[in-house]
Specification:
By secondary structure, this protein is mainly α. The chain has helices at about 1-25, 35-45, 55-65, 75-80. Helix 2 (about 35-45) crosses helix 3. The protein starts with a helix and ends in a 6-residue tail after the last helix.
């Protein structure tokens, strides 16, 4: 019983991460495997049309953990799974 529950949870997690990856790829408009600020802002405006540029800048800064000017897939997954974008 415990094993089937674990397998179900793992399958659900894989499905959620696949959905997040799909979202990442949709907003990675230039298909370079990274989301720049303009792409991030576009995503944020889709989630929250009232988001200001300063909110986008703050969110981008918080999400770009290595401060390289881009959000990679791992940073994106961590951000998406957080509640930051519920501004």
């Amino acid at each position: 019983m415990l094993r089937s529950r674990r397998e179900k949870v793992e399958a659900e997690l894989k499905e959620k991460i696949a959905d997040i990856r799909e979202t990442f790829e949709f907003f990675d408009r230039d298909n370079n495997g990274l989301i720049d600020f303009d792409e991030f802002r576009s995503l944020l405006r889709t989630v929250n049309p009232d988001a200001t540029i300063s909110q986008a800048a703050e969110g981008f800064s918080m999400t770009d953990k290595n401060s390289d000017g881009y959000v990679d897939i791992d940073e994106f997954i961590a951000w998406w799974r957080s509640t930051w974008w519920e501004y």
